[in-house]
Amino acid sequence: MPEIGWPVVLLFVFATHLPFFALRWWRTRETRHAATTLTFVLLVITYGIRVLAPELHIGVTPAWERVRVVAWAAAAVSLAMLAHHAVRAFRPR
C-alpha cells in the first residue's frame, strides 16, 4: 500500500471528480466538458503512475512528469473554454 501523501490525495480527488465531468459531457455533448474530462483523465493517469508505478520512466524522465505536461495543456484549453463560455453567458444580447 502506498504511503498516504499528496500524490495519493490528489489521485483520489481527481478520480472522484472524473465520473461527474464525464457524465456531464455525455449528457450535454459540450466540447468544454470534453476538455475538462480529458484533463481529469490525464491527471488520474499522472497520479496513478506516480503512486502505483513511480519507477516507470520514458528515457531519463519519470513517465508521470511527461503525462503531467500534457495534462497542463489540457487544463489550459479547458480553462480557456470555460472563460469563453462565461463571457458569452454574461454578454448582453
What do you see in this structure?
There is one protein chain. By secondary structure, the chain is mainly alpha-helical. The chain has one domain (6-90). 78% of the residues lie in helices and 4% in strands. The chain has helices at 6-28, 31-52, 63-90; strands at residues 57-58, 61-62. A two-stranded antiparallel ribbon has the order 1-2. A hairpin with a 2-residue loop joins strand 1 (57-58) and strand 2 (61-62). The longest helix is centred in the last third of the chain and has 28 residues, at 63-90. It is elongated, with a radius of gyration of 16 Å. The N and C termini lie far apart (55 Å). The relative contact order is 0.13. The model has no long low-confidence stretch (mean pLDDT 93).
